[in-house]
TrEMBL record:
ATPase that binds to both the 70S ribosome and the 50S ribosomal subunit in a nucleotide-independent manner. This is Ribosome-binding ATPase YchF. Its cofactor is Mg(2+). The gene is ychF. Residues 273-356 form the TGS domain. Belongs to the TRAFAC class OBG-HflX-like GTPase superfamily. OBG GTPase family. YchF/OLA1 subfamily. It holds the Pfam family YchF-GTPase_C. It comes from the Bacteria.
Length: 358
């Protein structure tokens, strides 16, 4: 499964956030066969549509999609000036498919800041510098080798050009991800550069920021094209221990429509390039995880490889059409249920039944 690595300076609230994420993981008891490592938090992707489907199909249970977060401890300022980032840290981060950087914007005199003051821009710079330096090292090793290969006609000049462009971006102190629009990302793929991974900035905030759309917009703009999520890690860790009703009440009092964890799950899922389709029956209403752009047979393969191999067609109704019709039979009668073939590219909200031969 694709994972999101959580990084950040000490004392910014990583553990607090991660504890909240792992306590939500208990809900993943739905997945008894998944072994969950202690540093992995698996959270449900909130999806109100599943409840509606369960009503229509009288489903016994609901199985949402999930998002996995990995707690990657160990980044400290100046790490790259000394012996460099720990190898274990680098290996862990390299394995993650996206990076969520927790950034402290909350004020609390009782919580010591490593640099003595709350300064999100400087903190982001610190972490990004460490990651950028690691990537520069990777390129410094790769470029001379590639130059030789290009001379020997064993590699393409275009690859070398892409590497050199990437090096320039890093030397400017920018992440590869932030410059992805102007870089040949395909050529860079094989390097597994840390800063090429999609970034999410999780601003651990207090009332001052959570209550100000202006401040949020400013911070979000400063990290674009990376996504920004604003939450209060301490509040989130309290929310997960409340009953659903209590939690909903607390959120309403705060003027929030959804919890920060839900928001993080949603943004994380999207950042990983994932999407869901839905199935429903008397047993379960379920969201299945696929890549954005997957075709119908690829989507069928997520349920079972036989479904993909023996794929004949997919019977699909959009969730909205199904809800307007009221039942599957009504949707069929209204001509809203489509037969799609092998070339069909799945859309978000497709409610599907696959036809296959074994
Ligand atoms: P880590 O070192 O990044 O893992 O940070 P911790 O999660 O251990 O948090 C460091 C300290 O900050 C702890 O005392 C937390 O209780 C506190 N803390 C974490 N999040 C918040 C927050 O949103 N608001 C406030 N006021 N304190 C927080």
């Amino acid at each position: 499964a694709l994972t999101i690595g959580i990084v950040g300076l000490p004392n910014v609230g990583k553990s607090t956030l991660f504890n909240a994420l792992t306590r939500q993981t208990i809900l993943a008891a739905n997945y008894p066969f998944a072994t969950i490592e202690p540093n992995v938090g698996v959270v449900n992707l909130p999806d109100e549509r599943l409840g509606r489907l369960a009503e229509i199909f009288s489903s016994e249970r609901i199985l949402p999609a999930t998002v996995s977060f990995v707690d990657i401890a160990g980044i400290v300022k100046g790490a790259s000036e000394g012996e460099g980032l720990g190898n274990q840290f680098l290996a862990n981060i390299r394995e993650a498919h996206a990076i969520a950087q927790v950034v402290r914007v909350f004020e609390d005199d009782n919580v010591i800041h490593v640099d003595g003051k709350v300064d999100p821009t400087s903190d982001m710079g610190t972490i990004n510098t460490e990651l950028i330096l690691a990537d520069m090292q990777t390129l410094e090793n790769a470029i001379p080798k590639l130059e030789k290969q290009v001379k020997g006609k064993k590699a393409e000049q275009s690859t070398l050009d892409a590497y050199l462009e990437a090096q320039k971006v890093l030397e400017d102190g920018r992440t590869i991800f932030s410059a992805k629009a102007s870089l040949d990302m395909d050529e860079l793929k094989q390097l597994s550069l840390l800063t090429a991974k999609p970034f999410i900035y999780v601003f651990n905030a207090d009332e001052g920021v959570l209550g100000s759309e202006e401040k949020q917009a400013e911070l979000a703009a400063s990290v674009a094209p990376a996504q920004a999520v604003f939450l209060d890690a301490k509040f989130e860790s309290e929310l997960v221990d409340m009953s659903e009703e209590e939690a909903a009440e607390m959120l309403e009092m705060n003027g929030q429509e959804e919890s920060g964890l839900d928001q993080l799950a949603r943004v994380g899922f999207e950042t990983l390039g994932l999407q869901t389709y839905l199935t429903a029956g008397p047993k379960e209403a379920r969201a299945w995880t696929i890549n954005q752009g997957d075709t119908a047979p690829e989507a069928a393969g997520v349920i079972h490889t036989d479904f993909q191999k023996g794929f004949i067609k997919a019977e699909i109704v959009s969730f909205d059409d199904l809800i307007s019709a009221g039942t599957m039979a009504e949707a069929k009668a209204a001509g809203k249920v489509r037969m799609e073939g092998k070339e069909y590219v799945m859309k978000d909200g497709d409610v599907v039944e696959f036809r296959f031969a074994v």
